[in-house]
Amino acid sequence: MSTRAAGSVLLRHLGPRVFGPVLSPAAASPRPPLALAGGGERGWVAVWVRLLSTSAAEAKDETAASKGNAGSTAAAKAEAAEAAKEGDGKRDKVVSSYWGVAPSKLMSKDGVEWRWSCFRPWEAYKPDTSIDLTRHHEPKVLLDKIAYWTVKLLRVPTDIFFQRRYGCRAMMLETVAAVPGMVGGMLLHLRSLRRFEHGGGWIRALLEEAENERMHLMTFMEVAKPKWYERALVLAVQGVFFNAYFLGYLISPKFAHRVVGYLEEEAIHSYTEYLKDLEAGKIENVPAPAIAIDYWQLPADATLKDVVIVVRSDEAHHRDVNHFASDIHFQGMQLKETPAPLGYH
């Protein structure tokens, strides 16, 4: 093949790239066409020079674009910083709006912006403190007796470790008490998915119980600041209890709910002793935490004693719900067959 023929083939394939328009400032003025006629080394050199110059122009464009993006990013950061400085002068974290998810701004009934993200205004309530605190399920069958004495044995190390430090005891109690509702609700949820059946409202009821117990913990965290070894104990106890309760619920839900019923009876006893120490002046009756005032709709001048009273009433309601759930199983029925006591704190 002659040099002229080779040049024409190369021109046919590379013509659009070599002679096409280049979208860059450097290519604003048209370049003279490269004459390959005559072929030879001069023609090949001209082609490679044009290719290299085109690549260099594109690289220059990419560099300019990246600088522009960097400038836009810097401008966005500057705007976010300015927005963070507005308001009360504090630097707040700015959430990216890339996904179009805007955090909701809620107002309390007093017209003040809601200050809690862990619960919403419609989740606040006034607890029923008139509930009977003395009710007790007398164990008669073997399974009930095993559940009862299991709880009694669990109380022994707790009494030894905490003595009468009821603030720390309450904190530990709530980290454990919030587990059963979550485990039971989760297992009922999975059962509903596997069997394509309704849950009778019990999934929501048990998750409500878990959330209510968690709010107890959020409250007592403001009262009793846990030490490092108490936090370590929580990790150990919760890890053991979660797995034990999980297996227990798989084997026998009626036994698991009965255990929780007796645990709540012990919680009522612990909070009653807490109240005795508060009334006797052994524990300072400090003002109620702000989160407790909003969650239980307490008066603005509420104290720790008021908090303990409403928490104790919550535990009494959980006692009734779990003994009720256990009785349903003892009667040979499924929870889904009986409407769940939703909203029953």
Automatic annotation (TrEMBL):
Query: What Pfam families does the record tag this protein with?
Result: AOX
Cofactors named for this entry: Fe cation
**UniProt EC number:** 1.10.3.11
Which reaction(s) does its UniProt entry say it catalyses?
A: 2 a ubiquinol + O2 = 2 a ubiquinone + 2 H2O
Q: Which GO terms describe its molecular function?
A: alternative oxidase activity; metal ion binding; superoxide-generating NADPH oxidase activity; ubiquinol:oxygen oxidoreductase activity
The membrane topology of this protein is: Multi-pass membrane protein
Origin organism lineage: Eukaryota, Viridiplantae, Streptophyta, Embryophyta, Tracheophyta
* Stated family: Belongs to the alternative oxidase family.
For this UniProt record, give its keywords in alphabetical order, as a comma-separated list.
Electron transport, Iron, Membrane, Metal-binding, Mitochondrion, Mitochondrion inner membrane, Oxidoreductase, Respiratory chain, Transit peptide, Transmembrane, Transmembrane helix, Transport
Q: What does this protein do?
A: Catalyzes the cyanide-resistant oxidation of ubiquinol and the reduction of molecular oxygen to water, but does not translocate protons and consequently is not linked to oxidative phosphorylation. May increase respiration when the cytochrome respiratory pathway is restricted, or in response to low temperatures.
Q: What processes in GO biological process is this protein linked to?
A: alternative respiration
Question: What is this protein called in UniProt?
Answer: Ubiquinol oxidase
The record's section on CDD domains has: AOX
Query: What enzyme category does the UniProt record give?
Result: oxidoreductase
- The domain of life for this entry's organism is Eukaryota
* First-listed, main subcellular location of the protein, grouped into a coarse class: mitochondrion
Q: Which GO terms describe its cellular component?
A: mitochondrial inner membrane; respiratory chain complex
Record text on cofactor binding? Binds 2 iron ions per subunit.
Q: Which InterPro entries match?
A: AOX, AOX_sf
Location relative to the cell: Mitochondrion inner membrane
